[in-house]
Design goal:
By secondary structure, this protein is α+β, with helices and mostly antiparallel strands. Helix content is 40%, strand content 14%.
Length: 238
């Protein structure tokens, strides 16, 4: 039965009003959540704790015909009663229950949500098992092309990776990383001239380049596309 219903507190005549396509099903859901203490409406849940289950009754107050917009009918009731001291409802719009529910009115206000160790393990396993298709990789690359960061944004990113803000700060380097850093590299100018350096560190110090810039260019083999070294590329040398 499509209807408007009330959950009435018989001890003080306060009520919660809602709509349902299947009243019995909706009643079952409300009772289940209230009994478990997880109802989204904290006013109704608080009253349930205070007065007990026997203080509440469910009542159909209006049948809604199939041709009528159920949520629009509910909104008429909400507009009339929400905000009054006798009404437990918080949401003022049935089609957007969270609309205007800021601060303490929001059911998530002040709550912190964390995954259990088991949930984290499942998420990690699913992430490791997922393999991106070539089509997905192509779409991701396409969304990143042509996107230009402002100088201010690049400076913020750079600052966030320096010193103890870098996740690798203070950690010992592996032998593999040490070997890469000590390998000779060449810097190729736009005119084809090659400058040789005994190591990546020497190149960075001489040219004043940041580690991500050099490492990315060495890995991809692509030329730099911005800054004073636009058109330069880098490669490992024998």
């Amino acid at each position: 039965m499509r209807c408007i219903y009330k959950i009435i507190n018989v001890k003080n005549n306060k009520f919660y009003v809602g709509s349902a396509v299947d009243f019995n099903r909706r009643k079952y859901v409300h009772l289940s959540k209230l009994r478990r203490g997880i109802h989204v409406n904290f006013k109704l849940q608080g009253a349930w704790y205070k007065h007990g289950e026997t203080a509440f009754v469910f009542a159909v107050v209006q049948e809604v015909q199939p041709e009528e917009d159920l949520l629009a009918v509910e909104n008429v009731w909400l507009l009339e009663h929400v905000g009054k001291p006798y009404c437990y409802n918080i949401a003022r719009d049935a089609s957007a229950p969270g609309l205007g529910m800021f601060g303490p009115l929001n059911p998530s206000f002040g709550k912190r949500f964390t995954h259990t160790p088991e949930a984290k393990a499942r998420i990690a396993a699913a992430s490791r098992a997922r393999v991106q298709t070539d089509e997905e990789k192509a779409k991701r690359r396409q969304t990143m092309r042509g996107h230009k960061m402002s100088v201010a944004t690049r400076e913020k990113i750079s600052a966030s990776l320096k010193g103890n803000k870098n996740p690798n700060y203070g950690k010992p380097r592996s032998d593999e990383v040490k070997a890469k850093l000590s390998k000779p590299v060449g810097a190729i100018k736009p005119d084809g001239e090659v400058l040789l350096f005994p190591s990546i560190m020497a190149l960075r110090n001489e040219l004043g380049l940041e580690a991500p810039t050099v490492n990315r260019a060495l890995k991809t083999g692509k030329k730099l596309v911005r800054g004073p070294f636009t058109g330069w590329s880098f490669k490992y040398t024998p």
